[in-house]
């Protein structure tokens, strides 16, 4: 699979909550870094982190750019705390080797934040 196909497959697997299929997309040397928290995960740790994440609902790929072994995607993520639905945006920067993800750098933001000038997104 090329990098664009790997990104699309990863998002589909996460959206389906298919944690059993997820490791097959990740290289044995896989590492994930969450820029916003400073956390780093290996393959098994990242699968477990996703599977155990409280309230996760959906992830939908909104945009992607891919070239060679690199793919970048922007996705919308929803989750729940009780009855409260939360919206997030994530940017994923993948490096693929031998058709598997060897590196994933993620940057997360909560959607709907107030801008410095006091406006809210439409």
Could you give the topology of this structure?
Elements: H1 3-15, E1 26-34, E2 39-42, H2 43-52, E3 56-67, E4 70-81, E5 84-97, E6 100-110
Report on this structure.
With 122 residues, this protein is of the alpha+beta class. It has a single domain, classed as Roll (Nuclear Transport Factor 2, Chain: A). The chain contains 2 helices and 6 strands, in the order αββαββββ. The chain has a 6-stranded mixed β-sheet, with helices on one face. The mean pLDDT is 93.
Report the sheet-strand fraction.
Answer: over 45%
CATH class group: Alpha Beta
Gap between N and C termini: 37 Å
* Count of strand segments: 6
Put simply, the count of helices is: 2
Q: Structural class of the secondary structure composition?
A: alpha+beta
Integer count of domains = 1
Instruction: Examine the secondary-structure arrangement and name the CATH architecture.
Output: Roll
Order of helices and strands, N to C?
HEEHEEEE
Low-confidence stretches: none
The spatial strand order of the largest sheet comes to 2-1-6-5-4-3
What value does the Rg take, in angstroms? Answer: 15 Å
For the biggest sheet, the summary is: 6 strands, mixed
Give the helix proportion (percent range). Answer: 10-25%
Q: Enter the CATH topology name.
A: Nuclear Transport Factor 2, Chain: A
**What gross morphology would you assign?**
globular
Mean pLDDT rating: 93
